């Protein structure tokens, strides 16, 4: 397997995750893409005269980490145009292509057929065969599942409404509609019919001589979205299986905007890559070249924020920002700002030499003051540091400390990265509830900090990290030990699903 790479190294090679959607018009492809990638402004790149529509790159300013190719106009059912899709698959699966130009995954979108309708047409089957031959990960997505369930409701005496009844027109309950919820009979009938569709898919795979493709039913309608995240997870597993040595799953984790656990998993991997590299460098490089803990934390912070793929608003004020070699005045983003890093350092500074972490040093009133300061003016670095009580002794130690396999360094490094990821979990959940999801302000960040502080998680996490370092007595002896332990810690505190 290739050497594990950081997020920036992967982005330098891939640029964007490239995905193809295939399916008939009106099948819900656009709504699905908008939901998964949290975009509403997807734009088509400039094309050359006569270029096939499927070759056009659809991108978005609000999420720059994916490229969409859409088969609109070249439906699999149309034999005279499907050769264009076929040629696209063959061209984009060429292993001589650079990774950034290859197709990384595809969704075959089929509007969930009503009972008795044909599931796969000849073009769909041809597409599955070609994609399999080109080693392209494909998920068959049965879209608009809510409409499928509604069809069964309309056949059900218990669910259907009477268009001539005043009560039904006003959505009141009556003898012909006993409940506003789908009844169990309709749910069972819809599930049984869907299973028949899956059986048809399995039969088609046998005829084609390929494994049964991954499949799932989805809907973007409220109340039916429970399979959106499983679709993302299925896609990730397929990408990791088909491109195991190319780290494509990292880019998928970054580009998608609905599965927080997948992002956290990528964040944890990134942090541990930096930590492992630092330990290796410490043991084999002359003293002058040994990585310092402070610089390594800056790198980890940057890569974790990159993994989250959260867009900052355009009107964020200018702040002092730390760069590995100097302090410089730049237009800083909220999550990448020096001030945010100092908030994190304030929270973890006691982990240097204090093993009793039952009481948390986190002071929500001080954090509130800092957030208010950030929101109203461009604050000098000394102001937030003074409010937080960031220890000069600790800060100087941090600047001088070498990344090494010693308890105080381990505790600070692990605490910083885990606290950062758990706060981002709160932030991600919070921003997803709003129409402008994917953007963040200082006020949002303050609320995320408060949410993290209101639970007992922070003090408990620090205690568990202290015990973790004691237990392993030298985590560098096994580079995977710290990784597995951190993932388990995040899973325990609901950042990663089991």
TrEMBL record:
Entries under SUPFAM superfamilies matching the protein: P-loop containing nucleoside triphosphate hydrolases
Superkingdom of origin: Eukaryota
Domain G: 18-143
GO molecular function annotation: GTP binding
Protein name stated in the entry: G domain-containing protein
Organism of origin: Mycena metata
